């Protein structure tokens, strides 16, 4: 059997098109474009690529992109002053602090200052608490995108067994909570889990967010399961070039699973699309408008 491919690139493009369609009416209501501010501190090459990409896609859906680039040796107080200023700026609906920050800066202290209504990464304590309480908030982008991909193949997750490997604040924990709110029965596995392969074999939906190249093997997978591979790992290919792989051994898994996300082209594109979605939601909610569909 060969699994169906869950095409994150195409699903993300659809989502961006829907966002783009909702921006016009919201702009008319607000009297300005929704705006996303991205703060990049330092010269980390991967972060620079992400920030450039985010800005490009933000403009492509018709929203305003504000980029703030600070030197790597910027003092904490200056980063925090910028966040306070963006909190007050009425033209800014979403604030994203690109992580990781250079050594010597305290990311948690900076994130804690972001106005929860503009926290489009969903990282503040207020938004984390809202997920736990099942209240409306801004949901972290990667978990949100992962659930959209799972539901593109399995529209009703109710009663299904879901296993999430990884319990990070950014991905694993919120993903487990979101799947639970979709009425899946969720197991959260991590580095201390005993007999991980056996736990994984119980999963109708298996989400891997670990950061270990191709850790999940074909014989860990229940036949027909839906696999969401969040991992992005850079490894050396046989010919010596660099290539990206997920946390799941794709070639083995596709022979057993019912559906699987590729890496690249799976969860990755959804993360940025969901960031744009959160910016749209933040803009609408701040203006007292209904959530655009
Ligand atoms: P973290 O390093 O913060 O968390 C990794 C988690 O995996 C931890 O909970 C850890 O357990 C668990 N883990 C580590 N080793 C094992 C093991 N041998 N068996 C079982 N569990 C293990 O990573 P993130 O959550 O930030 O990211 C996970 C992956 O997702 C990375 O590859 C990252 O690049 C990718 N990612 C992709 C995104 C996208 O847009 N597609 C966005 C964000 C991340 P413990 O808690 O016990 O230490």
UniProtKB/TrEMBL annotation:
Catalytic reaction equation(s): (6R)-5,10-methenyltetrahydrofolate + H2O = (6R)-10-formyltetrahydrofolate + H(+); (6R)-5,10-methylene-5,6,7,8-tetrahydrofolate + NADP(+) = (6R)-5,10-methenyltetrahydrofolate + NADPH
Q: Name one GO molecular function term.
A: methenyltetrahydrofolate cyclohydrolase activity
**Organism's domain of life?**
Bacteria
Detail which positions bind NADP(+): 166-168, 232
Q: Which GO terms describe its cellular component?
A: cytosol
Domain Tetrahydrofolate dehydrogenase/cyclohydrolase NAD(P)-binding residues, every copy: 140-285
The protein's matches in Pfam families, at most eight in alphabetical order, are given as: THF_DHG_CYH, THF_DHG_CYH_C
- Tell me the keywords, alphabetical order: Amino-acid biosynthesis, Histidine biosynthesis, Hydrolase, Methionine biosynthesis, Multifunctional enzyme, NADP, One-carbon metabolism, Oxidoreductase, Purine biosynthesis
Q: In which pathway does it act?
A: One-carbon metabolism; tetrahydrofolate interconversion
Q: What is its EC number?
A: 1.5.1.5, 3.5.4.9
List this protein's GO terms for biological process: L-histidine biosynthetic process; methionine biosynthetic process; purine nucleotide biosynthetic process; tetrahydrofolate interconversion
* Tetrahydrofolate dehydrogenase/cyclohydrolase catalytic domain mapped to chain residues: 6-121
Q: What NCBIfam families does its record include?
A: PRK14186.1 (NF010783), PRK14188.1 (NF010785)
Q: How does it assemble?
A: Homodimer.
Instruction: Identify its protein family.
Output: Belongs to the tetrahydrofolate dehydrogenase/cyclohydrolase family.
- HAMAP family, per this entry? THF_DHG_CYH (MF_01576)
What's this protein's function?
A: Catalyzes the oxidation of 5,10-methylenetetrahydrofolate to 5,10-methenyltetrahydrofolate and then the hydrolysis of 5,10-methenyltetrahydrofolate to 10-formyltetrahydrofolate.
Protein name according to UniProt:
Bifunctional protein FolD
């Amino acid at each position: 059997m060969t699994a169906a491919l869950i095409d994150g690139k195409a699903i993300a493009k659809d989502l961006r098109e829907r966002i783009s369609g909702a921006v016009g009416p919201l702009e008319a209501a607000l009297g300005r474009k929704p705006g996303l501010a991205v703060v990049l501190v330092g010269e980390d090459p991967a972060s620079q690529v992400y920030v450039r990409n985010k800005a490009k896609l933000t403009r492509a859906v018709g929203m305003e992109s504000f980029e703030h680039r600070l030197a790597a040796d910027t003092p904490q107080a200056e980063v925090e002053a910028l966040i306070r200023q963006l909190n007050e700026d009425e033209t800014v609906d979403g604030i994203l602090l690109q992580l990781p920050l250079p050594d010597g800066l305290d990311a948690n202290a900076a994130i804690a200052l972001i106005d929860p209504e503009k926290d489009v990464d969903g990282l503040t304590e207020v938004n984390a608490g809202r997920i736990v309480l099942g209240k409306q908030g801004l949901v972290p982008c990667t978990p949100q995108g992962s659930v959209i991909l799972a539901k593109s193949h399995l529209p009703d997750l109710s009663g299904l067994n879901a296993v999430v490997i990884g319990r990070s604040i950014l991905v694993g924990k919120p993903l487990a909570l979101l799947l639970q709110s979709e009425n899946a029965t969720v197991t959260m596995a991590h580095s201390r889990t005993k007999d991980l392969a056996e736990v994984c074999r119980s999963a109708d939906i298996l989400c891997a967010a670990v950061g270990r190249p191709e850790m999940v093997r074909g014989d860990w997978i229940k036949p027909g399961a839906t696999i969401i591979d969040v991992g992005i790992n850079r490894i050396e290919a046989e010919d010596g070039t660099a290539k990206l792989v997920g946390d799941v051994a794709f070639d083995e898994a596709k022979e057993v699973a019912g559906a699987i996300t590729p890496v690249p082209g799976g969860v990755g594109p959804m993360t940025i699309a969901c960031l744009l979605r959160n910016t749209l939601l933040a803009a609408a909610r701040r203006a007292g408008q209904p959530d655009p569909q």
